[in-house]
Amino acid sequence: MNERVLTPRNRGFLFLDSHPEGCRRSVADMWRACPDPADAPQGPGPVALVIGSSAGYGLAATLAGLKRAGIRGIAVSFEKAPTERRTATAGWYRTAATADIARTAGRDLVFLNGDAFSDTMKDQVADLVERRFGGRLDHLVYSVAAPRRTDPDTGTTYASVLKPIGRAHLTKTLVFDDQGVPEVREVETGPAEPDDVEQTVAVMGGADWERWIDHLSDRGVLAEGFSTAALSYIGSPLTAAIYRQGTIGVAKAHLEATARTLDERLGKTVGGRAVTCVNGAAVTQSSTAIPGIALYTGLLRGVLGQDMLPPVRQLAALWDDLTGRSPLAPDDEDRIRLDTWELADDVQAAVADRWEAATTDTIGGLADLDWFHAEVRRLYGFSVPGVDYAAPVATDVPWPGQTP
Ligand SMILES: NC(=O)c1ccc[n+]([C@@H]2O[C@H](COP(=O)([O-])OP(=O)(O)OC[C@H]3O[C@@H](n4cnc5c(N)ncnc54)[C@H](O)[C@@H]3O)[C@@H](O)[C@H]2O)c1
């Protein structure tokens, strides 16, 4: 058993190691933060597939699905195993913790580790649905955030980028030095090259989600009334140049257009439904990579405090919609909106005032930096309340279903 004391080592918002016990507790905290349903789910539960289940919104989808809807089924993510020298990635440890929660809740959830963009993974999932889950999938939540995707048809690998379109964009941004001292800087991001948009759409648009649905449909494993949701983001005018009007925004528009195509197709074939679900800002490994988002999210928390709705509470509402317990009215572009708390006019006005006033000297009084800094560390299992970080911890935690 490889036991050692782990201290955080990071470059910016990226950490080299993850803390297994901290990751386990952060999942337990998320589980507790998901509200109980008025009546406990009965029976074996609907069969669900969550893609991107080990972090951020996909982890929230998995936990909220277990608690609110009593799902069983399959959870897919892409994580790295521990080695002699390095810990596993945080999502590996969170997956082990999620598996324990599913087991305790009496739900049969199978965790697969591999590339969701591959056809091999799609076949593996379809085989499992056939063999283990009665051949019928009731729900699919798509929550992948990835830097690259290889198209199985052509073998071409696409890389997504976060760039403005048309001209360079100067934004304020928040960084922390090695001692954790915050600094507000300006960074310029150059405009997208001609094929950056196409590449980003190929990774983060709707192509892979559509491929999943077609693949599972061809295999005949979509249940009558099957429903699917993919996660999207709109965000603030403050981040629009880099996000919604940037390369990633074009990809999100593609994802939302794909939902409309899939919705029509599923309606005709299995009486099913496809939607995108627009969520609010959250601190995740993917979101911290977006220029300006760290500052924006820290200020948003400064304005909203505890009223900032965590992913697991948003996803509880999504499951209530998917299962028909409490349907949500879509917006005029057929999207489910769980981001209204973030985009409320008064909230956005207050964040914009603070953004304007933000400098290295003033930031401490404008943003909730303690929260933001701790959230970033919690992504890797550090700064989780109740964990003894001085104690040695076993890093070779097995993937669920494997023997150590
Ligand atoms: N973070 C936010 O503020 C925010 C807000 C609204 C919507 N969203 C959306 O939520 C979705 C998930 O983003 P996140 O921020 O939770 O990301 P994240 O980085 O926290 O999680 C990404 C997940 O995708 C998995 N993954 C990555 N590549 C994969 C691959 N090739 N195969 C299988 N799994 C893979 C990872 O293992 C992880 O489970 C995205 O669509 C994002 O746009 C995020």
Number of domains: 1
Helix residue percentage: 25-40%
What does the main sheet amount to? 7 strands, parallel
Per DSSP, what share of the residues sits in E-state strands of 2 or more residues?
A: 15-25%
- Which runs of at least 5 residues are low in confidence (pLDDT < 50)? none
Strand count: 15
Could you say what the CATH architecture is? Answer: 3-Layer(aba) Sandwich
Enumerate how many helices there are, as a single number. 13
CATH class bucket: Alpha Beta
Q: Strand arrangement, largest sheet?
A: 6-5-4-7-12-13-14
Give the distinct bound molecules: nicotinamide-adenine-dinucleotide
Could you tell me the CATH topology label.
Answer: Rossmann fold
Pfam family, one: Enoyl_reductase
Protein name: trans-2-enoyl-CoA reductase (NAD(+))
GO biological process, one term: fatty acid biosynthetic process
GO molecular function, one term: enoyl-[acyl-carrier-protein] reductase (NADH) activity
